[in-house]
Amino acid sequence: MQSEGSALDAALAELERDHAVKEISGWETGFANLSRALDGIRPGLYLLIGAPAIGKTSFARQVLDQVVLQNHVAGIFFSFADTREELRIRTLARLSGLDQREIRRGSAYLLHWYGVPRLSAGEPEDLPPSWDKLKRVTQEAKNWLNKIYLLECVPAITIEQIEAQIAALRLQSQSEQMMIVIDDCQRLNGVHQARDARLQIIAEQLQQTALKFKLPVLAVWPDLEGGSSAAQRWAEKTASPDVVLVMERDSTQRQSVDELRQAIILRVVKNRGGEKGRLAYEFAPAFATFTETV
């Protein structure tokens, strides 16, 4: 056992080292304003809440991709609704600037490892020119995509099984540091209470998972009640999350830059000991891409 007094010099030296190289204490999110608002991504539970079809899954996948890319860590995406192919197409659309529908049309060519086409029949000239761009960005991204694992969850999966997968992939990736995303976490099995009670129980379980592995867990929860004026209520529904993010459409902008983009507000309604905030984004659903705006 070591007293706090004897450990203080080493602790201060470590803090000095950290602040000498970074402006934030956690991992970069790939979104400058979000990184500053959260002081980076650190171990703990991040709860992302928003209405259905607002872009929560695309945002969570983009954040995971950017955290893995910028911080050289591993990542796991647990999905209850989207298939691996759908999640891959979101990343490919964002990286290539190609419409998701255009990429899906290429599925006839048998998508092979993140969209690289392998013909089962036909000639190479049958491929549209956009596939060259898709192949190029795929090759460029392979390094960090090799650190991401996409898992389709069966409805009966439990927290214990999620933890077993995390432990196994941590070992397989040979990386102690990784980020976890659990999309549609309300579908986790083993909790049968009413919706609000279910949120509290699942949030507590996921918080314990984050503490157990000393990892950040981004959990996505659907807001079926709606109402932007009630965003703050989510911070009061459960005490477990370190951070609560509420995603809303910006009602002050009836029309965005163009018809293909939506104005989105991300409210930081709970932040571990830090300031709360309101961050603005443009969301292009066709390309599964969020862009920070001033």
Structure summarized in a few sentences:
With 294 residues, this protein is an alpha/beta fold.
Verbal overview:
39% of the residues lie in helices and 22% in strands. It is built from nine helices and eleven strands. The radius of gyration is 20 Å and the shape is globular. A hairpin with a 4-residue loop joins strand 10 and strand 11 (289-293). It has helices spanning 4-21, 32-38, 56-71, 84-96, 100-105, 130-145, 159-173, 195-213, 233-237, and strands at 44-50, 74-79, 111-112, 116-117, 148-152, 178-182, 216-222, 243-249, 262-271, 277-284, 289-293. It has a single domain, classed as Rossmann fold, CATH 3.40.50.300.
Q: How does the SSE layout of this entry go?
A:
Elements: H1 4-21, H2 32-38, E1 44-50, H3 56-71, E2 74-79, H4 84-96, H5 100-105, E3 111-112, E4 116-117, H6 130-145, E5 148-152, H7 159-173, E6 178-182, H8 195-213, E7 216-222, H9 233-237, E8 243-249, E9 262-271, E10 277-284, E11 289-293
Parallel strand pairs: 1-7, 1-8, 2-5, 2-6, 6-7
Antiparallel strand pairs: 3-4, 8-9, 9-10, 10-11
